[in-house]
Amino acid sequence: MKRLSIQKIALALAAPVAAAIVSLVVSSVAVLASHKSPMLAYKTMWEFGTQGGSLMEALNSATPYYIAAIAIAVTFQAGLFNIGVEGQLRLGALFSAYIGAMFTLPPVLHVLAVFIVAMTIGGIWASIAAYLKVKRGVNEVISTIMLNSLAVGMTSFLFAKYFAVITEGSNNMTTKELPTTAWFPDLVPLLTKLGLPEIQGASVNGMLVIAIALGFIFWFVVNRTRFGFELRASGANPIAARVSGVNSKKMTVVALVISGAIAGLSGLPAVLGETHAYNMGFRSGIGFSAIAVALLGRNSAGGMAFSALLFGFLEVSSRALELIDIAPETYVIMQGSILLSSVIAYEVVRRFKLTLQSKELAKAVSA
Amino acid sequence: MSVAVELRHITKRFPGVVANKDVSMKVETGTVHALVGENGAGKSTVMKILYGMQHPDSGEILVNGTTVNLKNPNDAIELGIGMVHQHFMLADNFTVLENIILGAEPKHGVTIDFKAARDKVMEMSKAYGLDIDPDILVEELGVGQRQRVEILKVLFRGANILIFDEPTAVLVPQEVDDLFGALQGLRAKGMAVIFISHKLDEVLRVADEVTVVRAGETVAEVKAKDVTPRQLAELMVGSELPQPTTHGNTRRPEVTLALKDVSIPTATGSRDLISHISFNLHAGEVVGIAGVEGNGQAELIEAIMGLRDYTGSIEFLGSSIDHLTVAHRHDLGIGLIPEDRQRQALMMNSPLWENRILGHQRGKPVMHGAILDKKATIADTKRIMQEFDVRAPGPMTAAAALSGGNQQKFIVGREMSKAPALLLASHPTRGVDVGAQGAIWEVLREARSKGMAIVLISADLEELIGMSDRLLVMLRGAITAELDPQKTTPEQLGSAMTGAA
Q: CB distance from A229 to chain B under 8 Å?
């Protein structure tokens, strides 16, 4: 029995370790190709990335990734694929910044109201794909990709034409600043009170708390509720799910709309916690990176937290590569190779596990 | 005739398991020799040993009279042993000829001598009656023809001892006939053919001799012409076969299910999938629906379960269920054993305990309100595994790791656990071994005596006749006859099903 548990641990570690090694090798080749020492590159990244300020930045970068990854995971669990997170979060961010600045409410209520706006907009946008899928049989992958283009175009148009205010003497266009009641507090003051050393100019986006809470809710709903079971059953075997009494059309709609609503939230760390408005500098590509985060994290709350942090860390620490004359885009190669090798490694381990189980079974049968 | 292959007292242990305890068999040239046994009896281990894929712990292998030591399949191929696998290993985008010579190409210096290869293949194909066009792409071939390519591949490598691992599992009846024709051809040419199967009627059709293994031991070596399928089956399981029978009349006055003029029209307006079906089913009664597959039986079950729209009305326990969802019908007490268990009743990659929930996710014991009760589910999964003899390490094992028979026992156990008033059982014992079959029949018998109503669909006519209180024959979507199973033979039922009666 003991041997078996060691085996189980080894199996659990095999995939991530193998993936890490392969991706290190691939990234090293990339660094070598620019005639630099990979060891120096990693050392520089590590030294820069593990500084307090960098770690906080990595957290800030990971927060929207994580929320968006949860949005994608909701659909993955149901056997669907919402590629449209990018569009949903952009529209959500723009409208919540615009509408949120139109009124004032008491502090907590105001933030909640903005949340509702973002979730509603994201959900409505995703519901278009849901409608097309259920009523017209349009594959949601295709429709969400196209809705992305539409959303990006629409946000630019609405923003430039109607929502932006021109600031004197600045080229930056931005929506009207949100009243402070809608600001999401920074966590640094709280953390310093808890005994964390003070770091100059550091900030930890308060939406981190929301992301963590969402992670817990996601875990609980998916693994411990009837809805979550039916969601997973629809993904694992849609036909059997239908036979078991799951209304597959309803499940498709619900999964996509929830996904869109969560996607809407993932634009808020920037809007509520950083810029307090929607501006031209709004970070693009979160919705796409989040696909990788969800894949790497295997759609589990814990796994995605890990991969969001890893991506955040790589993104921030790779900025140091410029100092030693390596293109910081090397981190994109790292992300890609980690993702690819881990997807492969997990599949290999999954098959191996199944064979192992069959062998155990042979034993049980003959016993 | 001489002995081509002989196995003497082969023993093979895997950690914790003895796959073969004492297997002996003697295969003569110019014969078809069947190796039969239940799943897990050790058939495939024997073959893997003979093909050099595994090594016996003790015992001897003799090929053409001399003791050999097979280290790997290459050794076996060198000795003229060839294996036709159940799952074909062909390159789709290669032609038949290319596939046959792949890995054993006749060379012409450094280039492949396609002409020599083609001549040899054509000659073989003629000699053994394995008709095939060598220049067609394999992707264009049907299953039966692919198998033919596999056989030619093995012959091309000079095999005169051919092992067929469950060759008919993937074939339709017509293709089975062709294969058996080919086997006769091989036999006539003096080849030794070893035929592994658990389909006994096929074995008796094609084989000259039969070796029966049970629990890793040879229990009998018989001539095919001296045994009946039933005797062979009893040798396989080591006891008398379970019979599909029910005792006495357990029918109660109350009507469980009533169909009135139920039809499923097609969108195109052509012939209804099922048309004007009406019958009453009482508690404690089994109604068997007989019919050649594709005559509306599956659709009838789907209509009752609410998986398809229909016209007419269905009453369950005295009230109409026409407007109820699938979920609602489940919860009212309709149990379902679907015809395709892997597609319709299981999440293959999920553990058994999660599969326990499927179809029952709206009630106890697996749910506590809308919250999943994992502990209770696992406990209840263990109960099912014990009561229904589901052989698996535990509730955490993935459904995919179980054999078909154990998957089916699990599904039966799962459906019975809510004690449904009505059970829709589609092919409840299809593809399961004899032991599991008997166990499933016993479950149905007992439930019937407790007042459960059962709609039984089966392609196994003996099962249908033996288990049913009443038989309805379906042909092209309509009920064409009602028969009394006590006065019906399988032959009569068969002709009623085809509309010949």
A: yes
Is A363 part of the contact surface with chain B (CB cutoff 8 Å)? yes
What order of strands is seen across the sheet that includes strand B255-264? B274-282, B255-264, B311-316, B319-320
DSSP string, A201-260: T----THHHHHHHHHHHHHHHHHHBHHHHHHHHHHH-HHHHHHTT--HHHHHHHHHHHHH
Gap between the Cα atoms of A347 and A349, Å rounded: 5
CATH of the domain at A103: 1.10.3470
B280 part of a folded domain: yes
Pair B396, B374: CB distance under 8 Å: no
Write out the residue range of the structural domain in which residue B283 sits: 255-497
The domain boundary, picked from B237, B268, B286, lies at B237
Q: Please name the member of B40, B327, B343 whose beta carbon is closest to the beta carbon of A240.
A: B343
- Interface contact flag, A242 B350, Cβ < 8 Å: no
Residues in B touching A241 (Cβ below 8 Å): 358
Of the three residues B237, B271, B303, the one that is the final residue of a domain is B237
Domain-embedded: residue B170: yes
Structural domain contains residue A253: yes
A224, closest residue in chain B (CA to CA):
B372
Residue B81 or residue A19, greater confidence = B81
Residues B481 and B363 in one domain: yes
Q: Are residues B141 and B263 in the same domain?
A: no
Query: Would you list the DSSP string of A84-108?
Result: THHHHHHHHHHHHHHHHTT----HH
Tell me what ipTM this predicted complex has: 0.83
Indicate yes or no: pTM above 0.80: no
B344 closest CB neighbour out of A228, A230, A239: A239
Residue A363 CA to residue A345 CA, distance in Å, equals 27
Q: Is residue A343 part of a domain?
A: no
Beta bridge partners of A99: none
Chain A residue numbers with beta carbons less than 8 Å from the beta carbon of B17 are 362-363, 366-367
Q: Specify if A27 maps to a domain.
A: no
Out of B17, B343, B401, the one facing A239 most closely (by C-beta) is B343
B345 chain-A contacts, CB cut-off 8 A: 240, 243
* B305 and B168 co-located in one domain: no
> Å from A187 to nearest chain B CA?
34
Question: What is the SS3 assignment for B417?
Answer: coil
Mark whether B298 and B207 lie in a shared domain: no
Statement to judge: residues B161 and B282 lie in one domain: no
> Shortest CB distance from B344 goes to which of A227, A240, A362?
A240
Q: Could you tell me if B35 and B90 lie in one domain?
A: yes
Distance of CA A81 to the CA centre of its chain: 14
pLDDT of residue B17: 62
**Statement to judge: residues B203 and B276 lie in one domain:** no
Q: Report the residue from A228, A240, A354 with minimal CB separation from B358.
A: A240
Is there a single domain that holds both residue B93 and residue B171?
A: yes
Nearest residue of B to residue A226 by CA position?
B370
- Tell me, yes or no, whether A147 lies in a domain: yes
Domains of chain B: total = 2
- Is B244 within a domain? no
CATH number for the domain including B26?
3.40.50.300
Report how many domains make up chain A.
1
Size of interface A-B (CB pairs under 8 A): 114
Pairing of strands B161-165, B192-197: parallel
Q: Do B325 and A247 touch (CB under 8 A)?
A: yes
Which range marks the domain in which residue A213 is found? 35-326
Contacts of A331 (CB under 8 A, 6+ apart): A314, A315, A317, A318, A321
Per-position pLDDT tens, chain B of length 501: 688 888 888 888 776 566 788 888 888 888 999 998 877 677 878 888 888 888 888 888 888 888 888 888 888 888 889 888 777 778 888 888 888 888 788 877 788 888 888 888 888 888 887 888 888 888 888 777 888 888 888 888 888 899 988 887 767 667 788 888 888 888 888 889 998 887 788 888 889 999 988 878 888 888 888 888 888 888 887 776 677 777 778 888 899 999 999 999 887 777 788 989 999 999 999 999 998 878 889 999 999 999 999 999 999 999 999 999 999 999 999 999 998 888 899 999 899 999 999 999 998 888 988 999 999 999 999 999 999 888 888 899 889 888 788 899 999 999 999 899 999 999 998 878 777 888 899 999 999 999 999 999 998 888 899 999 999 999 888 999 999 988 888 888 888 888 764
